[in-house]
Amino acid sequence: MKRHCTLFVALVLLLPRLAPAQTNPFSAPSPLPFQAPAFDKISDSDFQPAIEEGMKQRLSEVEAIANNTEPATFANTIEAMERSGAMLVRVQRVFGALTQSNTNPALQKIQSEEAPKLAAHRDAIYLNPKLFARVKAIYDQRASLNLDRESNRLVERSYRDFVRAGALLSDEDKTTLRALNKEQSQLTTDYRKRVLAATNDAAIVVDTKEELAGLPDADIAAAAEAAKSRGLTGKYILTLQNTTQQPPQTYLKNRSLRERLFNASVQRGNGGPNDTTKIGSRLAQLRAQRAKLLGFPNYAAFNLDEEMAKTPDNAIKLMTDMVPAATAKARDEAGRMQTLIGSAFKLQPWDWQFYAEAVRKADYNVDESQVRPYFEINRVLRDGVFFAANKLYGLTFEERKDLPVYQPDVHIFEVTDVDGTPLALFYADFFSRPNKSGGAWTGSFVGGSKFLGTKPVVYNVENFTKPAPGQPALLSFTDVTTMFHEFGHALHAMLSTIKYPSLGSTPRDFVEFPSQINEHWALEPSVFANYAKHYKTGKPMPKSLVDKIKASRTFNQGFATTEYLGAALLDMAWHTLPPDTALQDVNAFEPEALTRFHINMPEVPPRYHTTYFSHVWGGGYAAGYYAYLWSEVLDDDAFYWFREHGGMSRANGQRFREMILSRGGTEDPAALYRAFRGRDPIVEPLLIERGLKRSPADTRE
Ligand SMILES: [Zn+2]
After folding, report:
1. How far apart are CA 499 and CA 452, in angstroms?
2. How far is the CA of 412 from the centre of ligand 1 (A)?
3. Looking at 30-34, 92-96, 97-101, 159-163, which range is the least confident one?
4. Of 153-167, 279-293, 454-468, 483-497, where does mean pLDDT reach its minimum?
5. 625 C-alpha vs ligand 1 centroid, how far in Å?
6. CA gap 509, 628 in Å, rounded
7. How far is the CA of 227 from the centre of ligand 1 (A)?
8. Residue 463, pLDDT score
9. Judging by DSSP bridges, how do beta strands 441-446 and 411-416 pair with one another?
10. What is the dihedral of CA 3, 9, 13, 15, to 10 degrees?
């Protein structure tokens, strides 16, 4: 398979004129409804030639725009750019989705070969002086062009994109920038690879089943299977998750094993063959140098200039304002656990989840095995998630079994608008499998754009445990919340009415707002009663159990908030370093930074340490991990708007749809929010929802 792929690529490179323009499934828009990807026709060997051909086509289209002898106009420059690169967009959307949710060695190889080429491709466009001169000419005349609001916004967006990519720099600085971009693309790819390897290597081998006492049977079976697959039949392997804290610590009675697991987790990437300390430190330095070239004092300032927060100080203030309440609550939680432990030993980070679970049982009496039978996956999807979208936005959903999928577990639904118009396709890929990355996310195979005449083709990917054949998939309430969350992102994409594709994205600190507000509907009484029914009897969940779920919602929030703030402030500390800073020693930098922000709490380490903080060093969240909290301020505050205006209704949903969900990046998000709420967001609702502050008039549990 791999050899076949390589041979195919070699032919394409040697004989570019024979590039399979007719046969490659990405060379033309898919003929399927909604231009849904023709997964029955796409094979792994199609991707690399399509990416290469796509870059070539886009470059020649962009050259033609840049070299046009006519004076620059909105149509022949800005709109022409929006139309360019269609093939590259098609292949990258599908390729990007599959490398995350259904990858294999062939796709991984293509990914590392193409990443630096794609970085250079981007520079070739944004650092093209002729092209920028045309964009700038339109930008400079925009006041006299009589453009509509969205077109005007697009002109400003395009101009800013060029400037932020270095278009105003001298040739010498452009050369420096290209080198920094190339190094960054290599280092981030290297970081991801090393973290994956370090995480796999850090898995714990356990010799006997007795040591695993407390762990659920299904997890013990999985640990035995993991050992077997590594040639250690008869032993057990505990594999690591991406976060500092590891799920088995909730159950393992053996304290020294909990400690071993914890140490393996926090030591990942800190020395050894897959050391990442130097990569993080160098990335921080080179990002600061890039920011300086582009006129900013540090990388965070450069990044946040495009975000709703605007400045690092605003983001840092939101977080540091919460530190006292979060750490005080975490100390309360620790105190409650120490009471359970007694004087035998002092609570350590590897004890936290084990004793938190004991407190949860004692104080809230919630037993997960009692809850799950009421959350059967199909019922949650149709009678919960879809039902809520119908109540709020009038949408209806019909499964389509006639369209091809990339994996048999994937289901496709056609989404119809309130007036009967076909709106979008929605793909649900819910179950965990070894070739899928951890976590949950949303993306689009096709972006909705009135200009291009395309409708959204959106997917949700989750990692719920797949049941044995013939058994129902029964979810935890956390899983249910995740399903509502990701569907909120899907709604944001499906309900967008934007014209130009470049205005489809919103700042990162706004993008979690539509997803997080959708989580609130999971517990809305009319929605909850509609889906939370026993999978065998169809009976609704008893009120006592519902009350327990509600009451335990703020449980352990001191811990959760503190570990999140630790990681988010660490991210800010790295990315506010000035450009002339020497390479930092990670092991000295981290404690100093956490102490500076008054969040160095030994029992509650950051959710990610620098050596395995992939969001920041290997993903797109550099100086951006604060975004979840920023969006949470918006979603809790907006949820209170619904509450103050009669709650969940079609009228309120329609208002939210029109003022927020349909607007994409066509307006400043702060202005969008202000128009919806009637004022700027306030942090109070978030503090109440997290149990960090009491509502003065709180009559709810
Ligand atoms: Zn999200």
Report:
1. 8
2. 21
3. 97-101
4. 454-468
5. 12
6. 7
7. 33
8. 84
9. unpaired
10. 90
Among residues 52, 61, 376, 486, the one annotated as catalytic is: 486
Burial 191-224 (b: 16+ CB within 10 A, else e): bbebbbebbeebbbebeeeebbebbeeebbebbb
Residue 186 belongs to what H/E stretch? helix 171-201
- Asked whether the beta carbons of 280 and 574 are under 8 A apart, the reply is yes
635, 516 in Cβ contact below 8 A?
yes
The alpha carbon of residue 383 and the mean position of all alpha carbons in its chain are separated, in whole angstroms, by 25
* Rg, the chain, Cα only: 26
Q: What is the pTM of this model?
A: 0.89
Q: 675, 659 in Cβ contact below 8 A?
A: yes
**Whole-angstrom Cα distance, residue 165 to residue 60?**
20
Residue 617: in which H helix or E strand, if any? helix 614-617
Quick: pLDDT tens for 628-674.
999 999 999 999 999 999 999 999 999 999 999 999 999 999 999 99
CA 357 to centroid of ligand 1, rounded, Å: 26
Cα-to-chain-centroid distance, residue 59: 30
Distance 205 CA to ligand 1 centre (A): 34
Nearest Cα to Cα of residue 291 among 180, 402, 436, 450: 180
Q: What is the DSSP string of 532-598?
A: -B-TTT-PBPPHHHHHHHHHGGGTTHHHHHHHHHHHHHHHHHHHTS-TTPPPP-HHHHHHHHHHHTT
Q: Which amino acid is at 105?
A: P
Ligand 1 midpoint to CA 512 (Å): 5
Q: Is 551 exposed, middle or buried (0-12, 13-18, 19+ CB in 10 A)?
A: middle
Does residue 486 have an active-site annotation?
Answer: yes
According to DSSP, residue 613 is labeled: -
Residues 392 and 650: beta-carbon distance below 8 Å: yes
Q: What are phi and psi of 460, to 5 degrees?
A: -115, 135
How far apart are the CA of 483 and the centre of ligand 1, in A? 10
Enter the tokens of residue 405: 């999928």
Residue bearing the bigger pLDDT, 8 or 374:
374
Q: Does position 11 have pLDDT exceeding 60, yes or no?
A: no
